[in-house]
User: Which sequence fits this backbone?
């Protein structure tokens, strides 16, 4: 009921509410009400509306909810205009980008998606940015003298001076880190992002995948299963906050607070797949992005909103983090995302430079 009337209630809040009711007994309806206030956390400005819905659900008192129903209906009409089909779509989808069933059926080709991901997986390892490793390999020319091995050869040859042995530092691909937003506003893109993530883990030796919404979950081990359907089923069982709320700033800070996790970002190509629609104060998001940028080799934000030619980074959160991003690109399709990741080794102007020129 609360979700139907526009309250943001994450799955973990629902389970927390049920656990709180169990712990309290409950001895009275007052216990249930206090548990609901503590775990479902209605905004202070909507507390009266929350109380009205509570009275309606548990006591059958619907008189106080009539006004709330009218307000919700008006909000939908204002958002959707006079287009009845669009209004119906908004009612049936609680988040994410809206599109009709006809449009999806006419533009989606799963076989082509699979072919594209197969090509992406095959090319990924050689297309990632590289770095010089501290490990060395033997080389016949253009290397430094391997003094230890050369002396060993001299000793084994009874003092004869063989040709000097050379070594050079290895060149290895950089790590790829994908941070995938699984909140309600991204639910139309989550399936495609996970398919891409599975292809990345299969194609790169050092790829790491995390999901975030109201929680942070590492799903790399699940995506190492070769069969994609089994891998995605395992990942689905691990993630608890599908299609719920989003706390992008706090979850990214939680990622950085775990030393083992933050080490994945050091020197890596980091791609955040999210619309970056942070609710409330964006100070934590700005801090997290700044710290990620300092650790990463390249930090990119792929947002499906950029698929619209009219898109501009106009929100306060996007304006705040834009100077710390290396790329702000279109994340609305598998094609654009795969092509971008395969181009990470090629230099490009900073995101702030590109979007200032576009604006």
Assistant:
């Amino acid at each position: 009921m609360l979700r139907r009337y526009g309250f943001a209630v994450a799955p973990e809040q629902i389970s927390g509410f049920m656990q709180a009711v169990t712990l309290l007994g409950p001895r009275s309806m007052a216990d249930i009400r206090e548990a609901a206030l503590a775990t479902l956390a209605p905004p202070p400005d909507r507390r009266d509306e929350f109380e009205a819905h509570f009275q309606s659900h548990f006591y059958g008192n619907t008189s106080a909810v009539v006004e709330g129903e009218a307000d919700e209906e008006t909000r939908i009409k204002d958002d959707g205009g006079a287009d009845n089909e669009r209004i119906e779509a908004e009612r049936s989808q609680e988040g994410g980008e809206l599109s009709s069933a006809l449009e999806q059926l006419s533009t989606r080709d799963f076989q082509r998606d699979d072919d594209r991901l197969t090509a992406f997986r095959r090319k990924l390892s050689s297309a990632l940015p590289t770095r010089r490793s501290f490990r060395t390999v033997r080389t016949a020319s253009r290397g430094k003298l391997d003094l230890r091995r050369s002396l060993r050869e001299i000793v084994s040859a009874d003092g004869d001076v063989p040709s000097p042995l050379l070594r050079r530092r290895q060149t290895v691909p950089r790590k790829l880190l994908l941070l995938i937003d699984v909140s309600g506003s991204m639910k139309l893109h989550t399936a495609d992002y996970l398919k891409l993530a599975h292809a990345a883990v299969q194609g790169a030796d050092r790829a790491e995948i995390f999901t975030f919404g109201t929680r942070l979950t590492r799903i790399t081990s699940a995506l190492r299963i070769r069969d994609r359907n089994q891998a995605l089923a395992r990942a689905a069982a691990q993630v608890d906050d599908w299609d719920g709320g989003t706390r992008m700033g706090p979850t990214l800070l939680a990622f950085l607070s775990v030393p083992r996790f933050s080490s994945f970002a050091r020197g890596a190509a980091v791609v955040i797949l999210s619309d970056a629609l942070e609710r409330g104060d964006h100070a934590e998001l700005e801090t997290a992005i700044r710290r990620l940028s300092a650790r990463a080799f390249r930090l990119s934000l792929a947002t499906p909103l950029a698929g619209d030619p009219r898109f501009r980074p106009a929100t306060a959160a996007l304006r705040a983090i834009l100077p710390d991003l290396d790329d702000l690109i279109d994340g609305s399709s598998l094609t654009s995302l795969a092509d971008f990741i395969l181009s990470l080794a090629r230099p490009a102007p900073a995101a702030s430079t590109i979007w200032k020129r576009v604006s």
